[in-house]
């Protein structure tokens, strides 16, 4: 079991309760230099989420989900300090810094979104999967 403390009180309450954010939504202030439109960044700061329709195809989502399913069952991942697990069931709840420990998610985290880049990214992913 992870030695990392779950610092989110909302996951420790018996019933839902409105809590103020502990951390900022956006750490950068130069929205003009952000990798997406400033309006999207402002909406993300306001709403806490961003929707980029069709960023990934259904086939690409299937690859990401398969990797997540694998990680949920990996004893080494579940025992890592980056894993936060449900207290009763032990199910994986959160996996911190996944982009540092997993090659697939490292590539996703480092990507610059352009159709040409995405095509080469997924070609490399599918090539490596077919070789495995």
Automatic annotation (TrEMBL):
InterPro entries: Phytyl_CoA_dOase-like. It comes from the Bacteria. GO terms for molecular function: dioxygenase activity. Keywords: Dioxygenase, Oxidoreductase. SUPFAM superfamilies: Clavaminate synthase-like. This is Phytanoyl-CoA dioxygenase family protein. It comes from Marinobacterium aestuariivivens.
